[in-house]
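Why do we care about 3D structure at all? Because function follows from shape, and shape follows, mostly, from sequence. That is the central idea of this module. The next example makes it concrete: a single protein chain, its amino acid sequence, and then its structure expressed as tokens.
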Amino acid sequence: MSSTPRQLLQEFFETPLAKSARYNLSASAGEPMTRDQLLALEEGIAAGMLETSLDYPRRHGSAALVDAIAGHYQGVNDDGVAVTSGLDDALGLLFLALVKPGERVVVLTPSYPPHLLLPHSRGAHVVPWEARPENDWVPDLDELRELVKPKTRLVLVTFPQNPTGFMPSQSYVDTLVEILRERETLLISDEIYSGLPHESSKGVNNLSDHYEHAVTMHGLSKTYGLPGLRVGWIVSRDLGVMRRIRKECELFNCYVAPPVDFLARLALRHEATILNRNSQLVRDNLELATKFFARHDNLFRWRAPMAGVLSFPRWLGLGGTRVLSQQLLERESLAFAPSYCFGAGDDHFRLSVSRRSFADGLERLEHFLAT
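And the structure:
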């Protein structure tokens, strides 16, 4: 890429009006839990946390935490897991360990900006694989086949996609893997939004289960509603790749703070309860969104997310979403991330159905449209 991309999403949310907004329709993490709500999931567990040692912990997370993570994947043992401080650190480790200057990296777009920023910072040749609105944001696999024909180090995807909500079917994943396996191209799969709605049959999770050279990332921030714990993980059956990642991790912080490790293990033990809680909220909010967009189909085009909590409605009114966003901040104290934050033009915005405050945010948007 000819110029250094910017972290426009972070820049937007760091503006004074966005930081002080009372309502946020783009919050990506699930409804947050408090420490006490999490401890209440297991009787008598609070005493155990109070007795947790604050000495140096085991490197790379406790054995119990690593085992709990590995148990979510097929054919993965402890050596195939690296615990990180959220996925921002995980992404940094991946590109530090796996990408050299000048190597070709294909990134599914629109995307979370660091997906483009980080390989660019490593001096990689970054090539967008563009999902397009005219195709309902379904990335074209024939186009990917052409993009990886030159020697490509890796392909980075997000499923469910941030911000469009696209989620691949089994047949789609089969073709994707066939394209990459032909050239033994690494696949990096950011799956931080997978798991909601809980027990949904839509789409395929855990791409490391489907491709021997896939590296999957997930964590507790988005679907679990525990972003304050800063617990993420990298998983792969490719142990050569994992050795390189863990070796880089040794140069930085490879510890998980014992109280955080304790709470993370607790969350994973009660995963179904947490995901059912958050899934019900997502379903309720999707129902509200469906009714809202039906009432305003002259101003918006919206497709519900195929999985996860994010979608990318199109604004049909006057002006672009950059202007609309600014007006909503000024008049309604309502924030949403316009599509320019994702390098995707100026007529879409990211909508999240993950929070309890979603109904209030829609009410403020409704009020704005009526005035």
